[in-house]
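Forwarding the complex inputs:
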Amino acid sequence: MSTTPILELRNVRAGYGSIDVLHGVNLSVRAGEVVALLGPNGAGKSTTIKVISGLLRPSAGQLIVAGRDVTGASAGALARAGLCTIPEGRGIFPNLTVRENLLMATFAGHKLSDIEESTYSRFPRLGERRTQLAGTMSGGEQQMLSLARALATKPAILLLDELSMGLAPIIVAELYNQVAAIAAEGVSVLVVEQFARTVLGVADTAVLLAHGSVRMSGKASEIGDDVLAGAYLGT
Amino acid sequence: MNENRIQTFTEEIGELKLRGARADRERWLLVIGTVALIAGVAMAVVGGFQASGTTEMGDQIAFLATGTLIGLALVIAGTALFVRYSLARFLRFWLVRLVHEHRSETDRVVEALKQIEGKLDR
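Prediction (whole assembly, two chains):
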């Protein structure tokens, strides 16, 4: 794993109109690292993801990607470069089939046949359902599709917002195994997760966010239950 | 992957064209609107006084054109910006309040359902 951060937030403040949600957030992700961004509901996790993906412009601070200050860059430009976001609620096209959803990922210049091959070898279940409407699949399969669609763009940085939302624990564990495999290929992953225990097993580093500020950050293995309880319960 | 991918990524990020704009645009437009409104009123008043202070028709027209007319145009533009962005702020606050109330309402309903459930289990 490289020691140079591929993604950095420096003293980022951001919010919606005059309502500030992030109050000076500092965060860094190195190449090939899995960073878990944890925190209770309303801590500012999704806002952080929006800032990083370029959907929300910070009112102060810097967003540094691959060593360059890209504060203010559009979400489209960052996505085309290789910063891929899987939003909360999956971000697939429910009225399209699995294959058509993958077709939508060819905008990045990769052939559909190549995308299908890598997707179906990674997620065989999607291969069995290639002609099925995405919206009619189970939650876990839909999340697999959103992961597959993201990977089809060959991202350098992957942002995952609440991967486990509405899924059974066994499916979540399966998905996080895939996330670990993706990171092992060298993709940097920032995972936003409300259910901390599910992600700490695969994360290298964990950052605890509370009330729009970083409460603590460190090795994922060093985050104990007492620290999590403190952050989540506000003690 | 992945040295190559990271190298390509770094190059692509390096080539990004940035506008450098910030989220403060809305606040700045509100400030600009307020300033234009005040400046417009001041210009219109000064233009009016200057025009009334002379009996020369040519000077009066010049004062009215440069002071009052431009002032009125600034007042209109400033008012439009002020209303647009102050209204947006107000509606956003209102929306946040509604969302907050809705959440507390849901929490109360869930709590009440839990209590009912507890009593039924007994």
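Chain A has a mean pLDDT of 86.
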